[in-house]
Amino acid sequence: MRIDLHCHSTASDGTDTPAELMRAAAGAGLDVVALTDHDTTRGHAEARAALPEGLTLVTGAELSCRTDGVSLHLLAYLFDPEESALLAERELVRDDRVPRAHAMIAKLNALGVPVTWEQVERIAAGGTVGRPHLASALVELGVVPTVSDAFTPEWLADGGRAFVDKHETDPVEAIRLVKSAGGVAVLAHPAAAKRGRTVPPDAIAAMAAAGLDGIEVDHTEHDQDTRTRLRGLAGDLDLLVTGSSDYHGTRKTVALGENTTDPEVYGEIIRRATGAFPVPGTGGA
To answer: What pTM, to 2 d.p., does this model score?
Structure first.
């Protein structure tokens, strides 16, 4: 089985619609794909409707968190999307993204970059607005050559010249909310240094004590030494180890299935989840 547990669609900051993503996942030879858009489940219905035969969908979301000044992301799988407490927190985080984007645009304008809200809104195309949309605007304007080049201290990285904080959930609270909604919580790319400060081991240990299920170890932004170190940490803390592409369509160069999750780990995620179940494809549109 080929299992990719971290992908994005146009419901947040990917460039494939949920339906296109499902077809692309099948075309890439995946057996299981997770749709984990930022702080939203809005793409799940379309993904279900378009699910090709032979491909299984894991519903999820990537939750925005912060601890001790470090931004981090929590992958939440197979939770009840209508559970009120987690739904309210997702809406709070998502709603704060718009004023944050306006504030970052103002900072970019002050730096001489003529980006506009209308441009960012067009790029987002109805998805949850985030920094990747501003990064794409900088690419369009010729300020930087690629989206990744926008995530530097000069521009949009944590603490960068145009960076603005947004509401982010404490990860221990986020884990509690996910578990209360019947979901499984996995810490996404904890050592992706290009994004800013990384998550320290003591913070991961605190999350493990709060019920964290796993760590996303095999990720395009983790080199081999980092993966070895994180595997050791996961073993010490009795955490599952996952791997995924963090696919964003054409917004990033990573391919679907570039990193995958062991089938036994996937089986354990399913066993632990009580809020929802994987959706088997029966031949979508």
So the answer is: 0.88
Evaluate the CA torsion angle 117, 122, 126, 127 in order and state its sign.
negative
Q: How many whole angstroms separate alpha carbon 274 and alpha carbon 147?
A: 37
Task: State residue 280 phi and psi, 5-degree precision.
Answer: -80, 140
Helices within 181-284 (DSSP H only): 201-209, 224-237, 263-272
Closest CA to 136 of 257, 279, 234, 252: 252
Classify burial at 197, counting beta carbons within 10 Å of its beta carbon; exposed 0-12, middle 13-18, buried 19 or more.
Answer: middle
Please state, in angstroms and rounded to a whole number, the distance separating the CA atoms of residues 22 and 50: 7
* Residue type for position 236: D
Question: 63 forms bridges with which residues in the sheet?
Answer: 74
Q: What are phi and psi of 127, to 5 degrees?
A: -80, 170
Q: Which of 85, 76, 78 is nearest to 38 (CA)?
A: 76
Distance CA 104, CA 156 (A): 8
Closest of 25, 74, 98 to residue 190, by C-alpha = 74
Helices 117-124 and 97-110: angle between axes, nearest 10 degrees:
130
Euclidean distance between CA atoms 64 and 207, whole angstroms: 15
Q: Could you read off the pLDDT of 51-84 as tens digits, one per residue? A: 999 999 999 999 999 998 888 999 999 999 999 9
Coil vs helix vs strand at 76: strand
CA distances to 44, 78, 136, 229, 282 from 41, in Å: 6, 11, 23, 32, 21
Q: Give the pLDDT confidence of 249-279 residue by residue, as tens digits.
A: 998 889 999 999 999 999 999 999 999 999 9
